Amino acid sequence: MYFAENWISVDPAADYDETLATIQAAVDGYPGLYRDVLTYLKERIREVLTGSSESINVRIYGQDLKILRTKAEEVREALSEVDGLVELHVELITEIPQIQIKVDLEKAKRYGIKPGDVRRAATAIIGGNEVSDLHRGGKVYEVQVWSIPKARHSLTSIEEMLIDRPGGGHVRLQDVAEVKVRSTPNVIKRENAKRRIDVGGNVRGRDLGSVVADVEQALATVEFPLGYHPELIGEYAERQAVQRKMIGFAALAAIAIFLLLQSSFKSVRLATLSFLLLPSAMVGGVLAAYAGDGVISLGSLVGFLTVLGISARNGILMINHFQHLERYEGETFGPALVLRGARERLAPILMTATTTGLALVPLVIAGSIPGNEIEHPMATVILGGLITSTLLNLFVVPSLYLRFGARSAYSEQLKFA
Asked: Comparing 54 with 156, which gets the higher pLDDT?
């Protein structure tokens, strides 16, 4: 009752940006509501990663709900000064009236009634209890046992509720239990055996990383008692965790790539040269990402890895072809060998780059529309990276091979030996 989602389909023939602006204006016209306009995929990604639909979420842990609420308000006040943070609010945990039935063990024992019997009877009378299912016409209908309305319309009627005794007869609920109304949180949320409450908000007008940096500084100004602590979660925190994992995997991959280059070239010098050129191939991808959304997202990271693979492949094939011409076709090391090798590898490299680029152009032109939240930044990075990696392999690699690719006298001796 405190949360709702409205899903809207947009006609492909409509102007998407104008439609989105109109929807946002309509949503913003309702004061007192916390709202966010998201595409379906973006909302699903946030929910799966963080369990929340907000871009930034400060989760506060502790035991006492009153202290948690107090600290949540202090955090909200501190974060309200952060530029670019909108729709800032404390999680809606409110007090609602609830009937509490506390069994008096001594009285229940006197009547031969177990506490579980009281709880089961009270549950069936007040809230209903499913006892069976009916199958009719391919549909399933639940069979519920529930009291009539007048048996539960007031606290007095609930106190007068009759509980069956094992030996026969009945006893009133108020004779074996204390029945009262007390305020209770509408929802109880726990994590790692601790209560928690969230302070969430969205980002608008600034990049996510800058806002998070300011949020961390604001959190440092809030003091928490012993046993209570905040944790910054949300889209940015999950992205940072993924990036840390990818850095670790990238380090292992870099070692494997260098060993493979060494195995292919049979030369530490050429392997080192080719390895050091790989980051340069991704310059176009970095520039394309900056000129596009200006944000390095998960799709962008996948694009960088793709460019890295294409560049490494083309570089290996180019240098291996130079070595083949020298070792097996009698070409003497020098400018003529490099020019012939580059000319013969020109068509394969251009065909690889062209076919890949043409396949990605529609995704780049379509822009960041619903459904393209991952594909668009990935395609943008790959397309930009293909340009620089192609130029690098066609012009820079041959020149550097001419400078550093000459085989040493020791290598020649090993060859003839």
From this structure: 156
Assessment of whether the complete model's pTM goes beyond 0.70? no
In the prediction, which pLDDT does 394 show?
A: 87
For residue 95, the cross-strand partners are 185
**Is there a contact between 271 and 262 (Cβ–Cβ < 8 Å)?**
yes
Convert the pLDDT of each residue in 335-356 to its tens digit.
899 899 989 988 888 888 888 8
Token pair in block for residue 156? 């007095």
Q: Above pLDDT 70, what percent of the chain?
A: 92
pLDDT by residue (tens digit) across 88-130?
888 888 888 888 899 999 999 999 999 988 888 888 888 888 8
Q: What is the spatial distance between Cα 156 and Cα 58, in angstroms, rounded to a whole number?
A: 43
Measuring CA to CA, how many Å separate 397 from each of 156, 281, 285? 89, 11, 19
- Work out the average pLDDT over 222-226: 93
Block residue for tokens 């070792």: 327
Residues in contact with 217: Cβ distance below 8 Å, sequence separation at least 6, in sequence order:
none
Contacts 24+ apart (CB under 8 A), 73-81: 74/222, 75/199, 75/219, 75/222, 75/230, 76/199, 78/218, 78/219, 78/221, 78/222, 79/199, 79/201, 79/215, 79/218, 79/219, 81/218
Cα angle value 21/27/33 (rounded, 5°): 145
Answer for the pair 264, 320: CB distance below 8 angstroms, yes or no: yes
Backbone CA torsion sign across 113, 117, 122, 125: negative
Question: What residue type is assigned to position 249 of the chain?
Answer: F
Query: How is residue 115 written in tokens?
Result: 């506490």
**C-alpha separations of 202 from 56, 206, 215, 300 in Å:** 6, 11, 12, 22
Measured distance CA(305)–CA(254) in Å, rounded = 11
What's the alpha-carbon Rg for the chain, to the nearest Å? Answer: 34
Mean per-residue pLDDT for 80-89? 88
Pick from 296, 315, 288: which is nearest to 390 by CA? 315
